[in-house]
Design brief:
The protein has 635 residues and is α+β, with helices and mostly antiparallel strands. It is built from 20 helices and 27 strands. The strands form 8 sheets. Strands 2, 3, 4, 5, 8, 16 and 17 form a 7-stranded mixed β-sheet that branches. A 5-stranded antiparallel β-sheet has the order 10-9-21-20-19, with helices on both faces. The longest helix has 33 residues, at 2-34.
Length: 635
């Protein structure tokens, strides 16, 4: 019985040992085969250390592929404290090279982290400093590649492009609005070390960074540079408090140029105050628009057929009474009897008050909101303002009257451009946008594309045609004459808005503006100029801002090679600014004496010899100043 029990116990022990052995074998098999990848990854994570390699941000390009924001390669300092043996000496040498205190550097060197990035003194180092650090040859001191944002045109388009921080994160403008696309995925150099920081004999692994998505804007760099030059000239000539210019395609809402002053260099944004770098005036600034807003009142009146600009007349005595308020015309004594087309040409406030009264408060307010005022346009940039309108139930007769000619309300420049674009493009209110498409950096494949977005049709094409006609007449015969360009069809409207401070209109302090279209009959370009309190000049939009807009449009004509067009409303002989213009006759093929008779009153310069005119400059059919110089090439 005793022996039998022993045998049973032996069998049980043997069976138990066998089962344990089988369990161990199965466990080893599970670890070595089934769970190998997971455990190997855990071991890898325990031993591996990453030296980061930042990815390049995506490029920002203009509509023609010209680079507006790119990247340059720099290096940054990374420490592995466990590998640094003489922490005092390393701290001393690095503090001297980087010009920081010993205590600060020692704090970096002594941290109980596997990797320590020296921030910000060790970021984006110059070549000379990087070479000095590299020559030290210390264990645990590494230089790694880092990408730094670079703006080749410096101040150009600075508020639109924005800027990035030390960690390549977008902080403003396009850089912020499209940061998730522009930001790439960082790579690393992976090496292996034990818990004490000693390198293990394992090969390093290079994880390649993935660059960000490229962003192509609707901006045309050539037009943008022309705008920047004009703004620089405005600052030099008038020393205003602020100034801005916007150029857009009125048919689509694409922004072709956008700039303001003061501006900044995006490469060195830290050198500027926060207000300068964060206020993109064309979308942020709000102010009373003045007479450029009259285009909206005109469009609404024409759509509702409350006036006929050719047949209906208005007598301007120089002022009009609304309740107990007297609203004056800019011309003392008024313009007398005039058609409503003359009211538009002369920018007559009393005439526009009557237009608003004929519309009535409800319809006037309806059109103002349908043209997009009082709310953000939705442009794809950060920092847009919405402007301010009267609350409908607060609008009395005086508020309605002042609203009709752009006073008592607050708008943004981008609202002005979007609203007037709708008035001249057939009536369609489009959302303005500045990013054309996003594309893969390797293949250039488009992954996201912005297209025209129409919110609503505010007025008919027939009404829009009359608005265009009226604006061309303003430039040909009215207050916008300083924007006239010989042999091209230009339309526009001036604005002279008195500024408000603490609810009181300031004396002698105005925002002078002009909004123009080119060509006037079928506009492809809309140009808005606003200059805040220019010095040393009579403050009228027609005398200050209109010539600036004219220069921008002339640049567009040259850049886009727009052909001449003499088919507009301009007569063969007309006068403004005490200057007479006439259409140049064709004298090519005539004898010299015949040509002299035809060109009587002009100065003639001859090239070559002979008695017959081979070629003339300017060419026939152009409008030029009487008494101007004509060059004749003789056979």
């Amino acid at each position: 019985m005793f022996v039998s029990d022993i045998h049973k116990r032996i069998k049980i022990i043997f069976l138990s040992i066998t089962i344990i052995f089988i369990i161990i074998i199965l466990r080893v098999f599970y670890i070595q085969v089934i769970d190998y990848n997971k455990l190997n990854e855990l071991a890898d994570n325990l031993w591996s250390r990453n030296l980061p390699i930042t990815a390049d941000r995506g490029l920002i390009l203009d509509r023609n592929g010209k680079t507006l924001a790119e990247n340059i390669t720099t290096v940054s300092l990374v420490l592995i404290p466990n590998q640094i043996k003489d922490k005092e000496k390393v701290s001393t040498d690095l503090s001297n090279i980087l010009n920081v205190s010993y205590e600060e550097m020692y704090a970096h060197v002594s941290k109980k982290t596997s990797i320590e990035r020296v921030h910000p003194e060790g970021r984006q180092l110059s070549y000379d400093i990087a070479e000095k650090i590299n020559n030290l040859g210390y264990d645990g001191v590494y230089l790694v590649k880092e990408s730094k944002r670079y703006y080749p045109y410096e101040n150009v388009l600075s508020h639109v492009l924005g800027y990035v921080g030390i960690d390549n994160q977008g902080l403003s403008g396009i850089e912020l609005e499209y940061d998730e696309y522009l930001t790439g995925k960082s790579g690393a150099i992976k090496y292996y070390s034990d818990g004490k920081g000693n390198r293990l004999e394992r090969s390093e692994v290079y994880v390649e960074p993935q660059n960000g998505i490229n962003v192509t804007l609707t901006i045309d760099l050539d037009i943008q540079l022309a705008v920047e030059r004009e703004l620089d000239n405005v600052i030099t000539k008038y020393n205003p408090e602020q100034a801005l210019i916007l150029v857009a395609d009125p048919k689509t809402g694409e922004i072709l140029a956008m700039s303001s002053r003061p501006n900044f260099n995006s490469n060195n944004y830290q050198d500027y105050d926060i207000n300068t770098i964060n206020r993109n005036l064309p979308i942020w600034a709000t102010y009373e628009p003045g007479s450029t807003f009259k285009i909206i009142t005109l469009a609404a009146s024409l759509e509702e057929k409350t006036i006929n600009i050719f047949d209906d007349h208005f007598h301007d005595s120089g002022s009009i009474m609304v309740d107990s308020a007297r609203i004056k015309c800019w011309k003392k004594g008024g313009h007398g009897s005039q058609t409503f087309l003359n009211v538009v040409e002369n920018s007559c406030n009393p005439g526009f008050v009557v237009m608003g009264q004929k519309l009535g408060t409800e319809k006037l307010y309806k059109y103002i909101t349908e043209f997009g005022f009082g709310k953000k346009t939705g442009i794809d940039l950060n920092g847009e303002s919405s402007g301010i309108l009267f609350k409908y139930d607060k609008i009395g007769p005086v508020e309605q009257a002042t609203m009709s000619f752009g006073q008592g309300i607050s708008v943004t420049p981008i609202q002005q451009v979007a609203g007037v674009s709708a008035a001249v493009n057939g009536g369609y209110l489009n959302t303005p946008y500045i990013v054309k498409y996003l594309s893969e950096p390797e293949t250039n494949q488009i992954i996201l594309e912005n297209k025209k977005t129409t919110k609503n049709q505010v007025i008919s094409e027939e009404t829009s045609k009359l608005v265009r006609y009226s604006l061309e007449s303003v430039v040909a015969n009215g207050t916008g004459k300083n924007a006239y360009i010989e042999n091209y069809r230009v339309g526009g409207k001036t604005g002279t808005a008195q500024k408000v401070n603490n609810g009181i209109y300031m004396v002698g302090n105005y925002i002078l503006s002009f909004i123009g279209i080119l060509p006037a009959d079928d506009p492809d370009y809309i140009v808005y100029v606003a200059i805040d309190n220019p010095k040393g000049v009579t403050q009228y939009g027609g005398t200050v801002s209109a010539p600036v807009a004219k220069n921008v449009m002339k640049s567009i004509i040259d850049i886009k090679k727009i052909e001449q067009d003499n088919s507009g409303m301009i007569r063969q002989e007309y006068t403004w600014l005490d200057t007479k213009y006439v259409m140049l006759p064709n004298v090519e093929g005539m004898k010299v004496k015949e040509a002299q008779t035809e060109l009587k009153g002009f100065k003639i310069e001859y090239s070559g010899e002979g008695e017959k005119v081979l070629y003339q400059e300017p060419s026939a059919g152009q409008f030029i100043k009487e008494g101007g110089t004509i060059k004749l090439m003789l056979e």
